[in-house]
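F-box protein CPR1
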Amino acid sequence: MKHKMEKNSAEKEETIEMYDHGDDQQQQQQMVSTTHLTYAFLIGLGFSPNTNQYKLLRMAQRQVIEPVHEECWFSWGTELYTIGSGRTWRRVENVPDLQVFCHVRPSFITSVNGFLFWLYDDYEFIDSFDFEHEKFRRVLPPHGFHGVRGFVSLGVLGGSLCLSNASSLKKCEIWILKNNGTIQECWIRAYVVKISTELFQLWDDGWGGFYKPIRYLNNGKVLMFYSRNALVVYDPVKQTARYLKIPGVQRKCEAIPHIPCLVSLKDVMGDNSKLLNIKSRATQPQLSAIEKMQH
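Structure:
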């Protein structure tokens, strides 16, 4: 059996030709099927340190048309694209719980050390993708972990994945995953942040929400983002938390950690890629408040 695949980028179609050769007679059957990308959402961007490559992972739905038997169906799958390779999207096999993956958007997508982690609403497990070996992995939460939707998040501290749980409304537990393990014993409960009822004075409609760990400050304190538009600095020594409510924000916002990089996008994507310069209209952030937190 011989397989031949061609792609017409202008029509966004893929053509697959299959030939069967018999032993006793020269019989040739040709079947041409086309697939159309009907829906896709990006899961995340990751980096493979060993291969020094950036890769994109997405979930895609394709319509498959088989004209010989006049059949048409839809197929879900995950696809991977290596930035700068000049190649097309590649299908990734062995996706865990593909049916769930198709209909439930992953949340708190976090990139750590060549892995991409994300949560689902039931919090029974954490899915991850290894960009080096291009394989999915499943990570179990800590023993006895019970999370409520809207009170659990993922973050990064010291280069390790963190799981934050504030479902009790009285405290926020922060767990750290060691060595990117998959078993429950790999989790260490690093911090327990007491949630004061005085927060009720800052928000008229209560104080529930999730805490997303962002980074360690220079003084050893932990900087977190509180989902009710506030920054939180936790002091592990004094076991106290300071809240800085973000002014002028009417809707819920999101905190995204950013590490400056001097690598040129042209070097990463290659000469055949087209780059667009986008000028942000956002105002420059005021760093004075963050600088004060480090003292």
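The chain has three helices and 18 strands.
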